[in-house]
Amino acid sequence: MFYTLGMWALWLVGAALIGACLGWLVRSTSSASRRELKHAKNEAAQLRSRLDEMTGIVGDRDRLMNLLEDERASAPDPSIVQAGRAALAERAELLDKIAQQNAWIGELRVRLWNSEARGRDLQAVVDAHVVEAAPPIPDLVEGERFLGQPVRFNDFTTIQGIGPAIAQLLIGRGLTTWWSLAHADIELLRSMLAEAGPKYQVHDPTSWPQQARLLANGQWEKFRTLRDALRITPLPAPMSAPAAAPGSAAPPATPHPAPNSAAPPPMRSAPGT
């Protein structure tokens, strides 16, 4: 009886040990499986994330490829690009030429200003000598009787072809008296009219010094004859004489008409401006 009970006890102990070993093995296997499953899930999540990233990269690549194709389709013809480059080069060359021409124009302007200043200086010298040799003031009352109009001393508007505007131009050039106008260079007078503008270029100053000389000397009858001849003489076409070279002598003064003889009618001046 005790033997049988002992055997059963041994069997129970052995079964308990075996059950404990099996349970440990099962628990160990289950824990390892759970760790592997968790690792597999983490790895799967990482793969999904990388897949999403690759999907975005592929989408960006496709979009860039489409943009590249559109740019290629809309790109201009190479010949047009070449023509545009040639036009830009030509434009740069023209800008360089314009800059050079502007520099030349500036230099010419400086030369012109120097020449005009020299002309004014020479005119001032001439005027100084003219003032020294100026005749006495003529009889203005007698002039009014001959001309049939009021006469003021050194009034340029008395001269046929000179009005108030041209008179101001003459005064601005330093010509303030009949005597100084009588000795003025005709080319300087033409240059003054040309600089004043187109409406002044129609006037011909050829007879102005001669008229001024007659007025300064009080030769009223000869002046009236010359003025009347200028009024009835057809207006000639404007003539452009070559400019006098720097340093060249001024043209000789117009000689006085012989006494009791009508002065030859020079070119008529247009009505004064």
Task: Describe the model.
- With 273 residues, this protein is an all-alpha fold.
- Among the domains are: 91-133; 137-238 and 253-273.
- Helices cover 68% and strands 0% of the residues.
- The chain is built from nine helices and no strands.
- The chain is rod-shaped, with a radius of gyration of 57 Å.
- The termini are far apart.
- Helix residue percentage: 55-70%
Q: How far is the first residue's CA from the last residue's CA?
A: 166 Å
Q: What is the radius of gyration?
A: 57 Å
Strand content: under 5%
Give a quick account of the main beta sheet: strands, pairing sense, barrel closure: none
Q: How many DSSP helices?
A: 9
> What is the quaternary state of this protein?
single chain
- Specify the overall morphology: rod-shaped
Which class do the helix and strand fractions yield?
mainly alpha
Order of helices and strands: HHHHHHHHH
Q: Low-confidence segments, ≥5 residues, pLDDT <50?
A: 234-268
Work out the number of β strands. Answer: 0
* Average pLDDT score: 80
What's the layout of helices and strands?
Blueprint: H1 2-74, H2 78-132, H3 140-147, H4 164-172, H5 178-182, H6 186-196, H7 198-201, H8 208-216, H9 220-232
Key words describing this protein structure:
single chain, 273 residues, mainly alpha, 9 helices, 68% helix, rod-shaped
Brief account:
The protein has 273 residues and is mainly α. The protein contains nine helices and no strands.
